[in-house]
Amino acid sequence: MDSALWLIVAVVLLLVVAGFAAVLLVRVFQARRLLLDADVPLQPKALFWVAVVYTVSPIDLIPDPVYLDDIGVLLVALRALHAAAARGGAGPKRLPAGPEASISGPAKVPPPQ
What we know:
Blueprint: H1 3-30, H2 32-36, H3 42-56, H4 68-89, E1 101-102, E2 105-106
Antiparallel strand pairs: 1-2
């Protein structure tokens, strides 16, 4: 193959990788909402932050120039965070705080007369 074809292949691969990186970056920024959600357990939140630190750190499990392991760790953390958020919404509801709360559930309000 001549050099022009190799250049085209390299540019196409670079654009594909840049597209995947952009999608991943958008998903990371969308995860902010889940990190502030009180219904999401602490473990997936901590896993997400560990993955972010691993992604930006210079230490790699697999030394490669394309950050495959970094992206994989971040994707696993995002998947765990989204799965925990889905389970958290279906979990038991918390009792309301304040004087109207009781052990058996929320206080019953009499109908208006």
